[in-house]
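worker-3 :: picked Lrp/AsnC family transcriptional regulator
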Amino acid sequence: MKQDTTQARVRKVDAVDRRILTVLQRDASITLAELAKQVHLSQTPCWKRIQRLEADGVITGRVALVSPEKIGLGLTVFVSIETGDHSKEWLDAFARSISAMPEVMDVYRMAGDVDYMLRVVVADMGAYDTFYKKLIETVPLKNVTSRFAMERIKSSTAYPVPGPSETRAGVRASA
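worker-3 :: tokens ->
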């Protein structure tokens, strides 16, 4: 779970790469022939671009998206964690522990009054109670606050692919 704290190298993507990324984020099972047609390339150059995007770490994997409710995971919990220990040793132990818990879908180190934010998906309140007990036994924690989602209104795995006129902050550059 631990990520490199250095600035990730940002790869320059052109308009064709952006079209490829947009289509693949919508449907990674699309055939190469259909993808090439949609992005206005022949198949070989399209495949080479995909391979380069993968080699450069822009495309990090291809997955099937699963409805958690359809497989019995009906409760999403957002867990805020505050810690009194900000040492490297504590963080390493926390990252190892949390990474081994399959219920934890996302972990973010935060700025502000909360140190870490987790998105946890479990079957029900009983399963969350079991998870919670396991969590508080892993490493010393100052405060744990749980917020239970009542309804998912929007969920997306597709990132907006910024164009060349947009800055890294997502704001359009002045013309």
